[in-house]
């Protein structure tokens, strides 16, 4: 939405509630939330805010929202009182369209004209409109939740209100709506403890009990530091109520009773595990990144680095300040000011919005909701040939080889015949998909953008590695040893030149590559741009033009995108192909 929504709904609840933020009962600390919006948008918002309070005639002070958009999931309705049957059917069709645009979610602004003018409704009309909205939602199989109501200043003796209503419907071909959130932050900032409290529904004991269920290795339990990527789920039912592991629920029960599922990707904070953190951000395609900052230490260690990587990959960010119960108010405010300074710097160019009330949270969420792919992009990806990125490989007793990852495009079903590769020789092996699981529950069909694990039966695990892709046999994948990328050198101690070796991250690909050539220049220094030719040193990879590139070596870091591929000869299926 727009800053004008914040102006309208936010005043009256104010920012005076201190550290009672979005996750106010979480330990460590009562957490602050801080949303981050692009600076360009803010300039428009400032102008819009100035415009929004110009006086209307005959009204003395009637603010307004931006005019209603034809596309998107936001609908304005002045009132919905006793519609005719024909009108009711039309409204139901319109609701289906808005839900489709929002991938299962739509927001209705009641008491608002199509041009954005906030007229408001009397108590009686508002009640009748919400009743009609309930009936419409029932007809399309959706649920409604009133997000907030507020009186508006309008020329009338009768108080007039507007209401903001969330409509949610799980699409017929899906079990639940799905979002992925990568959790970033410096070591010891409280990431795993925060997730433990959210997903388990129990407060921490002050000594790290909440995080124990998230750890996967003995050394993580012993040191209290995450070194691997773990996944935690938090569900919400159709009424917006939390569904988690409290009340001894299993993962299957959470999936069955949730209409919306958030998968938290818990990443490592320590610098020596940076490659794992980058892999989690590039490979798992998170919709959002949550940066956890400890109030008592502020911006320290890898915080700045994690923020920079998320911004370089254009992942929308929100910040949670933890451990505020361990600090004085002055210390918390100092940390908030420190974050605001960093976010406003030219490199970040963001406008921070402090979230300290429910209204602030709703406003920030609406601005963020524009970020995930819209329904049209999803439809287009689903029409393409199947491409599944392999991120994890397991061997499960009585099941066999299992791969985890994300379906980049197409549709994948049980029993589908795919090919997986490339091998060290650039070849692909045939395989058959057995069962599919999403969030630990069975799933028959996987759609573009969804993460899942696929059982491959007795397929030889030694033929697989992270970074491979499983694609439709009809696809002609481009396999290459060498590729060109337009890059920006973010930081380098000396000069970047031919022969330099870096670790390259491109989607789920992570491999060391040598700089074969720097076009137009002998060498690069910090902040300079150039087109560079890289060569993988171990095995060829499957790449696409336009893919984001992130490379590092020690303190050296750079970003860019693939501009040209130098494919090896057209791939030939290997002699040892196995049909499972």
From TrEMBL:
* Matching Gene3D superfamilies: P-loop containing nucleotide triphosphate hydrolases, Translation factors
Q: Which GO terms describe its molecular function?
A: GTP binding; GTPase activity; translation elongation factor activity
Q: Where is this region: Disordered?
A: 1-68
Instruction: Enumerate composition-biased segments (Basic residues).
Output: 41-54
InterPro entries, per database record: EF-Tu_GTPase (IPR050055), EFTu-like_2 (IPR004161), GTPBP1-like (IPR035531), P-loop_NTPase (IPR027417), T_Tr_GTP-bd_dom (IPR000795), Transl_B-barrel_sf (IPR009000), Transl_elong_EF1A/Init_IF2_C (IPR009001)
Q: Which domain of life is it from?
A: Eukaryota
Arranged from A to Z, the UniProt key words for this protein are: GTP-binding, Nucleotide-binding
Q: Which residues form a coiled coil?
A: none
Per the record, the similarity remark reads:
Belongs to the TRAFAC class translation factor GTPase superfamily. Classic translation factor GTPase family. EF-Tu/EF-1A subfamily.
What is this protein's record name?
Answer: GTP-binding protein 2
């Amino acid at each position: 939405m727009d800053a004008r929504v914040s102006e309208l709904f936010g005043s009256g609840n104010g920012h005076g509630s201190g550290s009672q933020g979005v996750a106010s009962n979480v330990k460590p600390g009562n957490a602050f939330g801080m949303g981050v919006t692009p600076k360009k948008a803010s300039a428009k918002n400032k102008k819009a805010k100035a415009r929004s309070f110009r006086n209307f005639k005959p009204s003395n002070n009637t603010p307004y929202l931006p005019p209603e958009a034809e596309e998107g999931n936001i609908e304005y309705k002045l009132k919905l009182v006793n519609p005719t049957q024909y009108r009711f059917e039309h409204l139901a069709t319109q609701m289906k369209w808005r839900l489709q645009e929002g991938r299962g979610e739509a927001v209705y602004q009641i008491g608002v004209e199509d041009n954005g003018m906030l007229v408001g409704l009397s108590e009686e009309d508002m009640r009748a409109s919400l009743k009609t909205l309930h009936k419409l939602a029932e007809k399309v199989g959706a649920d409604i939740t009133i997000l907030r109501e507020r009186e508006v200043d309008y020329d009338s003796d009768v108080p007039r209100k507007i209401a903001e209503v969330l409509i949610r419907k799980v699409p017929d071909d899906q079990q639940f709506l799905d979002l992925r959130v990568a959790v970033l932050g410096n070591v010891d900032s409280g990431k795993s403890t925060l997730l433990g409290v959210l997903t388990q529904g129990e407060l921490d004991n002050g000594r790290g009990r909440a995080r124990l269920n998230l750890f996967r290795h003995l050394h993580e339990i012993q040191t209290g530091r995450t070194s691997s990527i773990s996944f935690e789920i938090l569900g919400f039912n159709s009424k917006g109520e939390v569904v988690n592991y409290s009340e001894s629920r299993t993962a299957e029960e959470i999936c069955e009773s949730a209409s919306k599922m958030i998968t938290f990707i818990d990443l490592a904070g320590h610098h020596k595990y940076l490659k794992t953190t980058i892999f989690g951000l590039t490979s798992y395609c998170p919709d959002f990144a949550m940066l956890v900052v400890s109030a008592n230490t502020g911006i320290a260690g890898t915080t700045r680095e994690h923020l920079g990587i998320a911004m370089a990959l254009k992942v929308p960010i929100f910040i949670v300040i933890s451990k505020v119960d361990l600090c004085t108010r002055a210390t918390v405010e100092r940390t908030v000011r420190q974050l605001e300074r960093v976010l406003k710097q030219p490199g970040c160019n963001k406008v921070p919005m402090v979230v300290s009330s429910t209204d602030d949270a709703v406003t920030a969420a609406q601005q963020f909701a524009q970020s995930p792919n819209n329904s049209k992009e999803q439809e287009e990806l689903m029409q393409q040939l199947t491409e599944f990125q392999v991120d994890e490989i397991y061997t499960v007793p009585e099941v066999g080889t299992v791969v985890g990852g994300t379906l980049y495009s197409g549709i994948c079903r049980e029993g589908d015949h795919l090919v997986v590769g490339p091998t060290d020789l650039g070849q692909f092996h045939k395989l058959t998909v057995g069962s599919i699981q999403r969030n630990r529950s069975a799933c028959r069909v996987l759609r573009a953008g969804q993460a899942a694990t696929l059982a491959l039966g007795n397929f030889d695990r030694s033929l697989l590695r992270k970074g491979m892709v499983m694609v439709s046999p009809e696809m002609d994948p481009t396999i290459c040893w060498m590729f060109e990328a337009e890059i920006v050198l973010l930081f380098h101690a000396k000069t970047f030149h031919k022969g330099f070796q870096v670790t390259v991250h491109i989607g789920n690909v992570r491999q060391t590559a040598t700089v074969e050539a720097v076009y137009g220049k002998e060498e690069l220094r910090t902040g300079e741009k150039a087109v560079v030719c890289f060569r993988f040193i171990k095995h060829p990879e499957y790449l696409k033009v336009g893919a984001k590139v992130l490379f590092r070596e020690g303190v050296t870091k750079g970003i860019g995108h693939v501009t040209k591929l130098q494919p090896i000869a057209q791939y030939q299926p290997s002699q040892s192909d196995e049909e499972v």
